[in-house]
């Protein structure tokens, strides 16, 4: 008997039937004698609907007020889930993020969890209550509600599992597990039986929608195995853990991220310190930069290109334009019709020629590469957004990832 944390995403609690299905899963763990914590996201498209409501009132609301608004989606879900468990005849209590003791920094809309005060949670679990916690949210030192960024409910679940020293953390979603590519793009994608934290972290960061990257970071830090499973069937899911199979796969997956924009700072003076100037300006605004490419200097100037998320594009352009004279650049251009396609695999590090295979797949498909970024276990390319899905399928076929099966790893 131990502590089990279960997380249900928006599609898993989208309507009455799904809420009761999730409630019965929680009750089944409770019946085994376990203490159960259930983390839920906002129902279905609630968050998107709330964002639209905000736009009707104010095109550019403050991030603090957006957090106040968006946190209500999860509050609806926890109350409904608790009512369902109550209806099934079991003791239950719902808690918002702040009631559950989740304390964050003050980076509204993308806050990080600093600590979790588990006193209330432990008290409720000791009373043999099933505890339903609002995902995606916490409270900062000013007692303001904060949210953890899209997909933040995964992070809530793993953080709670770590704080409570849980025996198991299950992430229930609308897919059966972690696949070699998005099955909606690649119908013959293979489901992985297991995957390492490092590989999953790369895939999550690079656009795979299955898990929030910060949740994987936390799981790795505290060595908490995560099981990704479907909330719609009883199939075995994918285990995300410290080390996967001894024979590491050359490529474990292909990911695609369309929420990306390329920014180019043109004609920067070719002297030391200019890159630092540009990226320190962005760092002060908490803007994450991904792929960076600096051209060879010509006529005493160089161009620096990089990628940011589309949501940060306007802020990036504003900051750089305002400081154009400080940077000493001639112009700033951007493109928001790009996509990043990446391959990830722990086996890459000892196998030369992986990049060549990926580039050959893109060449055969007639797809042009704009930028390239590599690490020990990943290769990312920036391409035209209209070619994104074709690229994923071409690369997936090239590495024969459809031949993997759930017993193959």
From TrEMBL:
EC main group: transferase
Reaction(s) the record says it catalyses: L-aspartate + ATP = 4-phospho-L-aspartate + ADP
Gene3D superfamilies in the cross-refs: Acetylglutamate kinase-like, VC0802-like
Annotated positions binding substrate: 47, 74
Pathway the protein contributes to: Amino-acid biosynthesis; L-methionine biosynthesis via de novo pathway; L-homoserine from L-aspartate: step 1/3; Amino-acid biosynthesis; L-lysine biosynthesis via DAP pathway; (S)-tetrahydrodipicolinate from L-aspartate: step 1/4; Amino-acid biosynthesis; L-threonine biosynthesis; L-threonine from L-aspartate: step 1/5
Sites where the protein binds ATP: 7-10, 173-174, 179, 184, 209-210
SUPFAM superfamilies named in the record: ACT-like, Carbamate kinase-like
Keyword line: Amino-acid biosynthesis, ATP-binding, Diaminopimelate biosynthesis, Kinase, Lysine biosynthesis, Nucleotide-binding, Transferase
Stretches assigned to the ACT domain: 263-337, 343-409
Keyword ATP-binding: yes
Cited InterPro entries: AceGlu_kinase-like_sf, ACT-like_dom_sf, ACT_Aspartokinase, ACT_dom, AKii-LysC-BS, Asp/Glu/Uridylate_kinase, Asp_kin_monofn, Asp_kinase
EC number of this enzyme: 2.7.2.4
A Pfam family this chain is assigned to: ACT_9
GO cellular component, one term: cytosol
Alphabetical GO biological process terms: diaminopimelate biosynthetic process; homoserine biosynthetic process; lysine biosynthetic process via diaminopimelate; threonine biosynthetic process
CDD domains: AAK_AKii-LysC-BS, ACT_AK-LysC-DapG-like_2, ACT_AKii-LysC-BS-like_1
Gene Ontology MF: a single term: ATP binding
PANTHER family: ASPARTATE KINASE (PTHR21499), ASPARTOKINASE (PTHR21499:SF3)
Family: Belongs to the aspartokinase family.
Record's function text: Catalyzes the phosphorylation of the beta-carboxyl group of aspartic acid with ATP to yield 4-phospho-L-aspartate, which is involved in the branched biosynthetic pathway leading to the biosynthesis of amino acids threonine, isoleucine and methionine.
Name the UniProt record assigns to this protein: Aspartokinase
Native source organism of the sequence: Caldicellulosiruptor saccharolyticus (strain ATCC 43494 / DSM 8903 / Tp8T 6331)
């Amino acid at each position: 008997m131990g502590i089990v944390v279960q997380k249900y995403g928006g599609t898993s609690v989208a309507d009455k039937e799904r809420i009761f299905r999730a409630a019965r899963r929680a009750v089944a763990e409770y019946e085994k004698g376990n203490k159960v914590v259930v983390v839920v996201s906002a129902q279905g498209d609630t968050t998107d609907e709330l964002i639209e409501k905000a736009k009707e009132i104010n095109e550019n609301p403050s991030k603090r007020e957006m957090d106040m608004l968006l946190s209500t989606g999860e509050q609806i879900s926890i109350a409904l889930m608790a009512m369902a468990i109550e209806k099934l005849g079991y003791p239950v209590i719902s808690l918002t993020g702040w009631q559950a003791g989740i304390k964050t920094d003050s980076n509204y809309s993308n806050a990080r969890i600093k600590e979790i005060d588990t006193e209330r949670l432990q008290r409720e679990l000791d009373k043999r209550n099933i505890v339903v916690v609002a995902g995606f949210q916490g409270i900062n030192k000013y007692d303001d509600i904060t949210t953890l960024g899209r997909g933040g409910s995964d992070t809530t679940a793993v953080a709670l599992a770590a704080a409570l020293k849980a025996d198991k953390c299950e992430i229930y979603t609308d897919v059966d597990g972690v696949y070699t590519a998005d099955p909606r793009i690649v119908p013959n994608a293979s489901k992985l039986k297991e995957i390492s934290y490092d590989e999953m972290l790369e895939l999550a960061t690079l656009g795979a929608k299955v898990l929030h990257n910060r949740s994987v970071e936390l799981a790795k830090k505290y060595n908490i195995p995560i099981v990704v499973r479907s909330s719609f069937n009883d199939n075995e899911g994918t285990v995300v853990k410290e080390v996967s199979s001894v024979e590491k796969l050359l490529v474990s997956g292909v990911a695609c991220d369309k929420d990306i924009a390329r920014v180019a700072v043109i004609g920067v003076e070719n002297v030391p310190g200019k890159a630092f100037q540009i990226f320190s300006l962005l760092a002060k605004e908490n803007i994450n930069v991904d792929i960076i490419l600096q051209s060879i200097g010509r006529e005493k100037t160089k161009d620096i290109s990089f990628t940011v998320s589309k949501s940060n594009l306007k802020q990036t352009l504003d900051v750089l334009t305002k400081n154009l004279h400080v940077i000493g650049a001639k112009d700033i251009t951007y493109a928001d019709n790009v996509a990043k396609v990446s391959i990830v695999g722990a086996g890459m590090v000892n196998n030369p020629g992986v990049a060549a295979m990926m580039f050959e797949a893109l060449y055969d498909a007639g797809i042009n590469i704009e930028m390239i970024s590599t690490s020990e276990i990943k290769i990312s390319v920036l391409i035209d957004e209209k070619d994104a899905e074709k690229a994923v399928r071409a690369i997936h076929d090239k590495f024969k990832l459809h031949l993997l099966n759930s017993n193959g790893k």
